[in-house]
Design brief:
Layout: E1 9-13, E2 18-25, H1 30-43, E3 47-58, H2 60-76, E4 79-83, H3 87-95, E5 104-105
Parallel strand pairs: 2-3, 3-4, 4-5
Antiparallel strand pairs: 1-2
Helix pairs in contact: 1-2
Length: 107
Amino acid sequence: MPEQNNKTAKLEQIDSQQFALSGELTMQTVPNVARESLGIINRMSGEIKINLAQVVRADSAGLALLIDWLRTAQRNKFKIEFEHLPEQLMQIAKLSELNELLPIHNS
């Protein structure tokens, strides 16, 4: 996986059911990655896994992005699961009591 500039975020397709999110998920980067990933997210189907192991930093905007993708999955009737959430993002989810809402795969 290519190294990311710390001030960007990117969603990349690994195969038909697996994706990787990398970079920073902050208020500065999330609007751009949300816009760039819209077509990818809207074409997803089946059971999708998004790996966040390469996310180097995240704030509440990153959590909002995951929730938005979850809503899209529910609306478009596909299953989405997040893997390797960074500790920072998991703490925000727990503090806001959204960790139970997110489909997180602990691998």
